[in-house]
Amino acid sequence: MPPAANPVLCSVTDRHLLGPDEDARLAALSAAIRRAIAASVDWIQIREKDLSGRRLSELVRDAVGAAGGSSTRILVNDRLDIALGLGAAGVHLGEESVPVAEVIRWRNAEPTRRSFLVGASCHSLAAAQQAEHDGADYIFFGPVFDTPAKRKFGPPQGLERLSEVCRAARVPVLAIGGITLENAPGCLRSGAAGLAAIRLFQDSPDLPAVLSHLRGMM
Question: What is the C-alpha separation between 169 and 205, in angstroms, rounded?
């Protein structure tokens, strides 16, 4: 199938890759988020699951403020309360988060929140179909390739399974898990509407060049 004309490029955060000292790595992460916004990445998913509510709120507040007036959307992993309270563009739900259907029911009852994105991480075709049925706006599917951050979710799914999920889904599917410049074209040819990654974006010494390269493949 033809690749997406304008793939969504989502930088997923992980402060644990930025050093051992908490204060220093939070400062480094905030700087990395600002660089990603300046480079015009489409989405930034703040995925700091073990961060305290107070410090996560500080991080999200800074990110939302930095993204104001830009094309970048800030998504918050799991914490719907923080995403809403601080004006993020959406929430990303995992397998142990508030059910997608509950968040969608709430959103549908709040006309002013209709643009608020609700996404879900899925690791099987059945889970992707359920998330779509429940009203998710988009799906992260993976891990497509091997990556330390996703090994607890099982072995890599591979491009064939990614293609199967993309064919079955009517909402955008973003490939995640071990995404690199080398294997990104295969993900997009398999039908992925975009790419989500930690190291590819957060660790890049030249993020504008990475984004330009990915967008130039279309």
Answer: 34
What tokens were used for 117? 């994105």
pLDDT band at 2 (very low <50, low <70, confident <90, very high): low
Does 218 have pLDDT greater than 80?
Answer: no
Q: Which region holds residue 122: left if phi is over 0, alpha if psi is between -120 and 50, else beta?
A: beta
List of domains in the chain: 8-216 (3.20.20.70)
The residue-averaged pLDDT of 111-139 equals 96
**DSSP-assigned states of every residue in the chain:** -PPPSS-EEEEEP-GGGG-S-HHHHHHHHHHHHHHHHHTT-SEEEE--TTS-HHHHHHHHHHHHHHHTTSSPEEEEES-HHHHHHTT-SEEEE-TTSS-HHHHHHHHHT-GGGTT-EEEEEESSHHHHHHHHHHT-SEEEE--SS--GGGGGG-S--HHHHHHHHHHH-SS-EEEESS--TTTHHHHHHTT-SEEEESHHHHT-S-HHHHHHHHHHT-
Contact criterion met (CB below 8 Å) for 46 and 75: yes
Of the candidates 150, 191, 184, the residue with the CA atom closest to the CA atom of residue 3: 191
Q: Taking residues 29-42, what's their average pLDDT?
A: 98
